[in-house]
Amino acid sequence: MNKNSSNIMALAPNTSNKRETVCIFGTGDFGRALGHKMIQSGYPVVYGSRSTQISNLIPKDAEVLSHAEAAQKAAIIIIAIQRQHYNFLIPLAEILHGKVLVDISNNLKLNQYPESNAEYLAQLLPGSRVVKAFNTVSAWALQSGTLDASRQVFVCGDDVEAKQMVMNIVRALGLTPLDKGSLLAAQEIENYPLQLFPMWKFPIFLSLGLTAFFFFYCLALDVIYTYIYEKKNFSFFIAITIPNRVCPVMALILLALVYLPGIFAAIIQLYRGTKYRRFPDWLDKWMLCRKQLGLIALAFASLHVVFTLVTPMRAFVNWRTSKGIISQALNNKTEPLNNTNAWISDSYLALGILGFFLFVLLGITSLPSVSNNVNWREFRFVQSKLGYLALILCTAHTLVYGGKWFLSPSAYKWYLPNIYMLSLVVPCAVLVVKFVLIFPCVDKPLTQIRQGWERNPKHSE
Amino acid sequence: MNKNSSNIMALAPNTSNKRETVCIFGTGDFGRALGHKMIQSGYPVVYGSRSTQISNLIPKDAEVLSHAEAAQKAAIIIIAIQRQHYNFLIPLAEILHGKVLVDISNNLKLNQYPESNAEYLAQLLPGSRVVKAFNTVSAWALQSGTLDASRQVFVCGDDVEAKQMVMNIVRALGLTPLDKGSLLAAQEIENYPLQLFPMWKFPIFLSLGLTAFFFFYCLALDVIYTYIYEKKNFSFFIAITIPNRVCPVMALILLALVYLPGIFAAIIQLYRGTKYRRFPDWLDKWMLCRKQLGLIALAFASLHVVFTLVTPMRAFVNWRTSKGIISQALNNKTEPLNNTNAWISDSYLALGILGFFLFVLLGITSLPSVSNNVNWREFRFVQSKLGYLALILCTAHTLVYGGKWFLSPSAYKWYLPNIYMLSLVVPCAVLVVKFVLIFPCVDKPLTQIRQGWERNPKHSE
Amino acid sequence: MNKNSSNIMALAPNTSNKRETVCIFGTGDFGRALGHKMIQSGYPVVYGSRSTQISNLIPKDAEVLSHAEAAQKAAIIIIAIQRQHYNFLIPLAEILHGKVLVDISNNLKLNQYPESNAEYLAQLLPGSRVVKAFNTVSAWALQSGTLDASRQVFVCGDDVEAKQMVMNIVRALGLTPLDKGSLLAAQEIENYPLQLFPMWKFPIFLSLGLTAFFFFYCLALDVIYTYIYEKKNFSFFIAITIPNRVCPVMALILLALVYLPGIFAAIIQLYRGTKYRRFPDWLDKWMLCRKQLGLIALAFASLHVVFTLVTPMRAFVNWRTSKGIISQALNNKTEPLNNTNAWISDSYLALGILGFFLFVLLGITSLPSVSNNVNWREFRFVQSKLGYLALILCTAHTLVYGGKWFLSPSAYKWYLPNIYMLSLVVPCAVLVVKFVLIFPCVDKPLTQIRQGWERNPKHSE
């Protein structure tokens, strides 16, 4: 909605002469794209270039001058040049004195240089007011006008007034400036566009690995074993039956892995008797990706739900049901309702539904806009209390569903346990230890430690 | 949560005398509503009015004076008057000199006047500091205290200090100020509350048109044809069967239409050999509403999923299933499991589930709060890579589901193809052309063009 | 994503000497946690403490001095002391003159003191520049680095420059500062972390009460009655059958309760002939929790959908279906398709699906990030027009589903109506009154009243 209005503005530029001239150093792709957009938004643009010959590439309404001349025409100069060439600005130091220099550069690798490009620029030209901005916007998006992705432009700089001037331009282009503070933040801002879901990498690779393992485990037991020993071709199990075995197992294990690091942390703190020592690195990292683990678990759980709900639409299931009914009809008898079976079937379904419901609730509260509206106490209530309740319900769902198999020898093909049994190990362990941890005799010292008490103060020296 | 606390504040006004007097010009509905709310929040309010007789309508605790007297009592004056009457402020120019004037007016139509009301006010009274604010808030919401909708108040103005003063009042009323920059943004802010989903209009009308066409097409082939030639009354197909044919068709076509403009853009760029010329207008507009098209496609896909899942609950389906089983039982035979059918049924279900899963993922990442936390690279990865994967899966789902019908003459009632076949035209075309475009010999020049290279630089002059 | 980069920054502190020394008064838990985090982020930290003996608890790299000495070393002093001890700062007034004092204190109860802690501090030390911040962050989260919850730090203060300095520190710690205006907002900020879903309390207790009532009502009629009079043990109905009766009833009633206060408000306004008098308190409160009521209704509706979709997976349902088919097969006859039944079954399913679809749409638009991107006109369109449409569809779904039971005596066990009938009372009443309210002869005066017109202006004196 907002988007639209800013587009209207861009298409019908305000022709009043209020916009101040902006100078752009560099006629590369991004410099040209930014210039185009600025002209559309009503800014007079002047390019500073080594040669004024390549002018046919740049926007028609822009002037092209030498760097020195161009710089004198504007209060704001956008440095659309690569970091390696910043040196050539040094002779211009006098002309650039007091001007607002906008560093829009990006690096090719994370933390490529010891200091950020913007800080480097500020060191080279101490008399100028350097502002970091625009590096998170893509030239292609600016050019095509299809700013579908984030319209946020991170801005930082030491001079408040200079920052304001740049933020006004950002707004005029239909983007949303976000003040990230002083130039110290430039490193972070420069690293930002290079990331590809950094927090998701470990959880995704872990899930893919586990999924592959469980998939082939099931394939061996359900398809190959059946084919070898029972001469039945159930290869179509690959499409739904096996995925629907792997998904719930993954969901349960990953959900338990969300709560496992908290258990470890509690044990470490109890053992050390203080909270003022850092956790081991692996635990720190694990704790930082709990949200991602939980969301992947939710994805598996959702797939499990849909895979289960399509059951009655499967040709195999319909065939099996018909066969059962026909054999009863041919034998002229009707089986009576087995009350125990009815109880088991209904209660594992109900437990699963409630567990999934809480799971989705946890997922919704982890949406940024929801968690921003929730205070620390509320967040802990939802993520800890409701999260454990979801884990308990999902574990119970699994136990009720297949409890009978534990003692049935036919469940142990090739002497291997069903993956269903493997899936219960982690969640049961987490729940048992958590149960111990909420005993008053354990909970009380732990609470004290978390409030700052130390069993053995000398340890922290 | 936040909401509540601000309400508490409003209900239990801070009685300390720190709040500065606010003057309101005009005793119309919005002026009164705003005055009420300000008094509740602890601001002394004085009204400026032509006659002090109509005082019984305005809040009890407010003073009513002549315009000149009222203006002298406050540093901030809220102009709750229609634009046509702004002229009467000119004689007050001297008194209003240096005061902060808050323009809260709205127009009746988009871009009704050449300049925004706030800019017009600033031109009339050059000595005053004009700030645009509050126009997006409804009087009814202020009055009833039920600010369910957006609590955002867009503020713009050329004077930073004046803007700060207004933003402090906004915050004190329990609303969230959003700085939109200089007074140039006033036009956009004044247009904002007049819009009714402007970006959604075209996608929604397109969907409604296509839906109606496909609905009647199905009605003719499935209900009327069957009634005429087979004497069967399947009128109840209108409720579920036909919607569940139209929904997946619409979802697939709209999803393909999301990716079609990108294909056109690539072809145009390849043909022109440059990215520095504007796309035709229709393509620009199409690209801007891709997100909306995608979300409508997701809505249709979700309906398709639910319509499909209720299948086993339908009386007609149960009757058909029973009939099949009973006829087998009466014939004393059991059909063996058809392995091909089992494969087809399971794999189209699995493809559909995975496609829908990716589709929902795309929908979640298009939530503003999620896409704001994602950088350009991540957004492109999700929307382009995962989007194409979803399109491939959904097209495959459709092909596997009904591939057998292509060669069956009974599928061509009245020599017309099934809508299912029509639905495959656009997605298959998109996928084939995209497949060609990722060939290195095509992809390489395209990438170069998108990085700013031009085949024929003279073209852009 | 953003999260990560800031963590990287925290783990690899910028060793340049640009960060200014920060002084912390108080070596309690939060003071130490904040100090740790600041040192990690590259700030030199000096503690002010009564005795410099307990230094082994505080971070290694921090200095510990007397209060006066510590204060002189820094421009920013964080007051990590409880309000009761603020008095001891008075002797330091001269040293603290002009310094930025950051009040991070929280209270134990809402509105515990007449004025906020920060305002109290500002009164004690009128020469200092007091800023409220950090009170919404938990020590445990700071310590462990797992800032999963909101990273927002509310900041307020009367001195803009001081606020900027504090906000820069907040950003450097990887948190997001949110300017809440002047120190008047401190009360609100101090109340914030004490809340536990205040707006949700009434809707949740109401739902729990009603749910319990309907659950036992159903238990009596469906399980106990059947057991006594028909000698059948249907105790397993507790797991799915009864929840799936209670959920839709709750969803429908709560959805109707969302629209009921609007009806009351309209009637009160029509009766009074003015909108300028406050509604009764209960109505005000009711209107403020409509969003919460609606979301709980959506939760019940979602549960109803999933409970319904698992129907074909229930052992009881499969047994009942088999029994029906087998009895037909044994009697050697096939029942013909009942067209009326097919119509009823398909249309109540279709109505339910469409109603639920609109319901989910309403839920999505109430997400903060979505409703912030929607203007008042659009929000009213969705919440009012689409909301009523959802209510109509859901009521129709219920009526079509069970209309036949109204006249069947077997539905009145123990002369009590089915809960299904009870659920229709409120929604039907809402829809009927709403239907009357949109008659022009009623709608016109109501619209006038809402635009500020008064039937009897003297009333408001």
TrEMBL record, chains A, B, C:
It comes from Myiagra hebetior. One of its GO terms (biological process) is iron ion transport. Residues 249-394 form the Ferric oxidoreductase domain. PANTHER family: DUDULIN-RELATED (PTHR14239), METALLOREDUCTASE STEAP4 (PTHR14239:SF5). This is STEA4 Metalloreductase. Its cofactor is heme b; FAD. It comes from the Eukaryota. Pfam families: F420_oxidored, Ferric_reduct. Gene3D superfamilies: NAD(P)-binding Rossmann-like Domain. It catalyses: 2 Cu(+) + NADP(+) + H(+) = 2 Cu(2+) + NADPH; 2 Fe(2+) + NADP(+) + H(+) = 2 Fe(3+) + NADPH. Its main location: membrane. It is a multi-pass membrane protein. The chain crosses the membrane at residues 204-229, 249-271, 292-310, 347-365, 386-407, 419-442. InterPro entries: Fe3_Rdtase_TM_dom (IPR013130), NAD(P)-bd_dom_sf (IPR036291), P5C_Rdtase_cat_N (IPR028939), STEAP_metalloreductase (IPR051267). Keywords: Copper, Endosome, FAD, Flavoprotein, Ion transport, Iron, Iron transport, Membrane, Metal-binding, Oxidoreductase, Transmembrane, Transmembrane helix, Transport.
